Amino acid sequence: MPELTSLAKLSQLKDYLSDVNLVAYEEESRQGEKTTFEKALQKNYQSITIVIGPEGGFDESEIVKMKDYGFESCALGKRILRSETAPLYMLSVIGFSRELMSSWDL
């Protein structure tokens, strides 16, 4: 069951670490990254933390700090999604991978 939190300061993200920790970063999309999100979802995990930034995205220094905390930056496909849309997209992908993917014969 997803748990939404209110806005958090960057330094507070250490309090939200899970088995898998992802931050959606638009620069990964621009650079053609395609596998981090997929590989993270293939891990055996009980909890996952996803971080979505503000409109306009994260500054590179913020991404470096989150990586220091243990987050992996990932792309969400070719499109840059709005802050309101990205969490729904990620939750849909997570739900599909956990509940439906194993029953598909791909």
UniProtKB/TrEMBL annotation:
One of its GO terms (biological process) is methylation. It catalyses: uridine(1498) in 16S rRNA + S-adenosyl-L-methionine = N(3)-methyluridine(1498) in 16S rRNA + S-adenosyl-L-homocysteine + H(+). This is Ribosomal RNA small subunit methyltransferase E. Residues 2-94 form the Ribosomal RNA small subunit methyltransferase E methyltransferase domain. Its EC number is 2.1.1.193. One of its GO terms (molecular function) is methyltransferase activity. It comes from Allocoprobacillus halotolerans. Coiled coil: none annotated. Specifically methylates the N3 position of the uracil ring of uridine 1498 (m3U1498) in 16S rRNA. Acts on the fully assembled 30S ribosomal subunit. Belongs to the RNA methyltransferase RsmE family. InterPro entries: Alpha/beta_knot_MTases (IPR029028), RsmE (IPR006700), RsmE_MTase_dom (IPR046886), tRNA_m1G_MTases_N (IPR029026). The keyword Methyltransferase applies. Its main location: cytoplasm. It is found in: Cytoplasm. Keywords: Cytoplasm, Methyltransferase, rRNA processing, S-adenosyl-L-methionine, Transferase. CDD domains: RsmE-like (cd18084).
